[in-house]
């Protein structure tokens, strides 16, 4: 890889890191609360888009895109885990007035 190619690779990873910060901030907030604070559809669209973009990035053999989409998918799936865990816990609680 030539000098200009390395420069663009550094720029690409820097841009991906900056873009990902919004998800990292949201992820940290969710981890602290132990629940997701974003609408459920957001996470499903994120997973669907992330998988699609990851497939595209692999096809293009773009390491910046592959790392960014792979890390994002982990965060999206972790949030869905918290959402479903809370829903399951709430579903097993006794109905109001039966205690």
Cα end-to-end separation: 69 Å
Radius of gyration: 18 Å
State the low-pLDDT regions, or none: none
Number of strands: 0
CATH topology tier name:
Monooxygenase
**Structure annotation, total helices:** 3
Q: In the CATH hierarchy, what is the class? A: Mainly Alpha
Tell me about the biggest sheet? none
Domains (count): 1
The share of residues in extended strands comes to under 5%
General shape: elongated
> Mean of the pLDDT scores?
86
Structural class, by secondary structure, is: mainly alpha
Kindly state the percentage of residues in helix. Answer: over 70%
- CATH architecture term: Up-down Bundle
N-to-C series of helices and strands: HHH
Task: Supply database-style keywords.
Monooxygenase; mainly alpha; single chain
How would you sum up this structure, described in words?
With 99 residues, the protein is mostly helical. The chain has one domain: Monooxygenase, CATH 1.20.1280. The protein contains 3 helices and no strands. α1 packs parallel to α3 (63-92) and α2 (40-60) packs antiparallel against α3. The protein is elongated and about 70 Å long. The chain starts with a helix and ends in a 7-residue tail after the last helix. 8% of the residues are buried.
SSE arrangement:
Layout: H1 3-33, H2 40-60, H3 63-92
Helix pairs in contact: 1-3, 2-3
